[in-house]
Automatic annotation (TrEMBL):
This is Adenosylcobinamide kinase. Belongs to the CobU/CobP family. Signal peptide: none annotated. CDD domains: CobU. It catalyses: adenosylcob(III)inamide phosphate + GTP + H(+) = adenosylcob(III)inamide-GDP + diphosphate; adenosylcob(III)inamide + GTP = adenosylcob(III)inamide phosphate + GDP + H(+); adenosylcob(III)inamide + ATP = adenosylcob(III)inamide phosphate + ADP + H(+). Gene3D superfamilies: P-loop containing nucleotide triphosphate hydrolases. Keywords: ATP-binding, Cobalamin biosynthesis, GTP-binding, Kinase, Nucleotide-binding, Nucleotidyltransferase, Transferase. Catalyzes ATP-dependent phosphorylation of adenosylcobinamide and addition of GMP to adenosylcobinamide phosphate. The active site is at residue 51.
């Protein structure tokens, strides 16, 4: 099962995702947290510390994977007893795209986005459940600089591909999960 949760900054996405993990994980399962953030400034450092603190006081015992890049390198470490929270796709894509000097070339960006998508597909197949958190960044129009344009284009592509693959897609708004897609079992 794949659940995709997107929303604006501070919309409650992570909290909603953690609640889903808690609902899905059973006694024989293990909860995994793939954290993709890099410390880039003081605000990000504080957010990472806050998330780590919240996980340490959570009813679930999380196995945390600090994976700001190269998601594909860990996909085969999971099995059908694993419930995975990937937080967040937006950071992962930004870290991948801006890791080298080719961020301004669309074909390079597309290769990296495709690698992320394939890793997500594999995680979804290998695990009991994969819950993916991402940001909605598409409300401010088309950016003028090439880097931001390619980033938003690739993030939009990934969102569409993942929602197509997902069993459930949720928009987090003010802490409320708004279900946008739910695949029913036949």
């Amino acid at each position: 099962m794949i659940v995709f949760i997107s929303g604006g900054v501070r919309s409650g996405k992570t909290h909603i995702a953690e609640q889903y993990v808690q609902q899905i994980v059973s006694e024989n399962d293990e909860a995994h947290y793939i954290a993709t953030a890099k410390i880039t400034d003081e605000e990000m450092r504080q957010r990472i510390i806050r998330h780590q603190h919240e996980r340490s006081h959570h009813p679930l015992s999380w196995k945390t994977w600090e994976q700001p890049e190269k998601l594909h390198t860990i996909v085969n470490r999971f099995d059908k007893n694993d419930v995975i929270l990937l937080d967040c796709l937006t950071n992962l894509l930004a870290n991948e795209l801006f890791a080298d000097e080719f961020w301004h070339k669309e074909d390079s960006c597309l290769r990296k986005a495709t690698s992320i998508y394939e890793a997500i597909r594999t995680l979804g197949k290998n695990s009991k459940a994969l819950i993916i958190v991402s940001n909605e960044v598409f409300y401010n129009g088309v950016p003028e600089d090439a880097g931001t344009y390619h980033f938003m284009k690739m993030l939009g592509l990934l969102h569409q591909q993942i929602v197509s693959l997902a069993d459930k897609a949720i928009l987090a708004q003010n802490g409320v999960p708004l279900i946008k897609k739910e695949r029913t079992k036949e």
